[in-house]
Amino acid sequence: MTTNTMDKARTQWLAFRRAFDNGHSEFIEKADRFDAFYAGEQWAEEDIRRLEASRRPALTLNMILPTINTVMGEQSTTRVDISFKPRTSGDQETADVLAKVALQVQDRNRLDWVESEVFQDGLITGRGFFDIRLDFEDDLRGEVRVMARDPREVVLDPEAKEYDPKTWKSVYTQTWMTLEDIKRLYGKDKANELQFLADAGSHFGRDSMQFDSKPMTFGNIDVDSVDTEVDNRAIRGVRVVECQHKQLAQMRYFVDYRTGDMSPIPESWDDQKILAMQQQFGLGIIKRMGERIRWTITADHVLLYDDWSIYDDFTVVPYFPYFRRGRPFGMVENLISAQEQLNKTASQELHIVNTTANSGWTVEDGTLTNMDEHELADRGAETGLVLVHARGSNPPQKIQPNQIPTGLDRIGQKAAMNLRSISGVNDGMLGDTSAEISGVALQQKQARGQIQIQVPLDNLAKTRHILAERMLRLIQKFYTEERVVRIVNDMLPGEQAKEQQFVVNEMSPDGAILNDLTIGTYDVVISTQPNRDNFDESQFAEAVQLRELGVMIPDHVIVEYSHLARKGELAELLKGMNGFNEPTPEEQQLMQMQQEMQLKAAQLDLAKMEGEVMELQSRAQLQAQKAQSLNEQDQARMDELEAKITMKREELQTRIQLALLTQQTRKQEMGSRMISEHARLSTQRELAKDKPNTSQR
């Protein structure tokens, strides 16, 4: 371990402690408290002991849990849909392929679940973090991996004040690792250096290393009781600090002289690939100073890794539900006071009720004959209690309890209302509305509540956009070789999921690269769509509503959107009954034979008429030679035959078109039958409406 590496490790440790002490340690304390309130642990241990000593209850009416869960439910009902739009030297076909590759990344990482975890972290603690990087565990070429990081492990730049990490100068991540983990990731020598520091006692302290106070031995001997100065404690964990920070460096850029756009050249590209890119798009190359990301990893005094990052951005992507000029906060933070007011008010109400039921007794000393004063104190609130006092003594008197303060119950109601007002989650969204509220009023209340919680959802959309941009850059930079991409298409009604497979960066025989993901620049387009269950339910409800309004939606379509068991078989049966199924091979052969016979008959009729016309034309020519004029009767006959030929040709053309559009004709006939069926259903509904009136009369 050289002096230079020790200096780098020490410098990073001091910078990390500065960032940790300037806001992050306070955030950890708050985050632990917010997590406890969400889980229902809302009383301090000291307060619980004090209340138990005075025999007072400590109730917890956790209204934060359903409030947060309601907002999380709004997020979980939709899923992100990532697509791309070509901007410079890009095309729509490649943009569609990029969208499919992004879909595969989403599916492999279970991004919906990861996003829900990050969203929950943000709502509760005020900070949630994605971590997007390459993973080489399953594929040596690397695959994009998206994870949820514990917000306690991410230490932000204390000087940063904007949402987008592009403006940050650095970001730290901290994890506790065992020596075995360090040996596996960074080598045996690094683990030995850390063990040497622990044995010598020259480490940074308990903030840097944690030890087992009692090593696992057969005798279970306490190390502290052993009279020795040798520090042979086992290392339980070492704090590993990763720092991604920006530094100025000489960089090469592609330049489009027509538009002025610049793009950094990846360090992994060789000269041949750079030259090919220049020639293909007519780009120039310039050198200038730019910001690059340096990645430094340390553990105590040991420098584990220090080199330029392979990524163009920080791997950390934040989510802040509420953000105001460098001040992120979550939803729980503003609900704690109202929740504590509700708990204290409910506990005080219960205490008053308890003291009213068992307010105590006043008794003369030594006058009780069937029990003593201590037994009366224990049994004084029993139902049917019998007290026997000495003859001639004053009987025991029940102490008059204090009256319940007026308005105490309303304080509890106000606390519950404050929770809903602050969070924006009203009783309509929680499902606590009374039965007399109409459906329209309920929908309006839910809509107002959704507007109030739109801020954390809007910030989630911002985080999704940043994450999608990082994903696009990783795909274009590292997915440069030929790969087989498999995705599963969304299930359509009545159909099963289908796997689609295609190849990207495929070399064609003529040397061209098909589906080249590295070429072109694209804009990210983020949209949301409901998850599959909610989508089917909404489609089923809308289909039924349109059917009631008179839109002729086939029966099998409505069944396909339902949740019936074996709905596919039922839908196929209804399609066959209503004539929507494709004809069988036997039916197709019979229809083809009929069409051929009809065409042959039409062609024979046409040939016969054309023969008659030719005969009349010959006769006309002979007569013209003789009399230079036509017989009026022959002229009329010829005109009539020519008109019939024209009609026959049109009829033959119509038959040919009908033969080609047989399936469409059958559907049109089916539509006519559906109109009749709809008329019958409408008549039945009208009759059903008239029945109550008839009964009243």
Summarize the structure.
The protein has 697 residues and is of the alpha+beta class. The chain is built from 20 helices and 20 strands. Strands 4, 5, 6, 7, 8, 9 and 10 form a 7-stranded antiparallel sheet that branches. A 3-stranded antiparallel sheet has the order 3-2-11. The chain has a two-stranded antiparallel ribbon with strand order 1-20.
Structural overview:
Helix 6 packs antiparallel against helix 7 (188-200), helix 9 (336-357) packs antiparallel against helix 11 (408-423) and helix 18 (585-627) packs antiparallel against helix 19 (632-660). The protein is built from 20 helices and 20 strands. It has helices at 3-39, 45-53, 64-76, 92-109, 111-125, 179-186, 188-200, 271-281, 336-357, 373-379, 408-423, 427-430, 439-452, 454-478, 532-549, 555-560, 567-577, 585-627, 632-660, 662-696; strands spanning 78-88, 128-135, 143-149, 154-156, 170-177, 209-211, 235-255, 262-264, 284-299, 302-308, 316-319, 322-323, 328-329, 361-362, 397-398, 483-488, 499-504, 506-507, 513-514, 521-530. Strands 4, 5, 6, 7, 8, 9 and 10 form a seven-stranded antiparallel sheet that branches. It has a three-stranded antiparallel sheet with strand order 3-2-11.
